[in-house]
Amino acid sequence: MAAEPDNLVLSLLRDMRAALAEVRAVQDEQSRRLIRIEGRVDETHESMITGLGLAAHASIRHDRVEERLRDLTDRVERLEGKP
């Protein structure tokens, strides 16, 4: 009789160990996937920041060019005597 409870406990422990190994395998796969997703999010964030920076820079340059063109147009009109 004494052998039966030990065998039952050992059997349950083996089952628990097997289940735990499966859980660890799933967790490892999820960790790898999460690392890949984080990398993609970081790349997307960097691309967005770069794109916004370029757009802002282009907008500022466009405004400067427009201002310069307006100044030159005004100057030419004054030199030609146009109102």
UniProtKB/TrEMBL annotation:
Q: Could you tell me the keywords of this UniProt record?
A: Coiled coil
Presence of keyword Coiled coil: yes
Chain segments annotated as coiled-coil in the UniProt record: 55-82
Task: Indicate what this protein is called per its UniProt record.
Answer: Uncharacterized protein
- State the organism named in the record: Methylobacterium nonmethylotrophicum
- Please spell out the taxonomic lineage of the organism that makes this protein: Bacteria, Pseudomonadati, Pseudomonadota, Alphaproteobacteria, Hyphomicrobiales
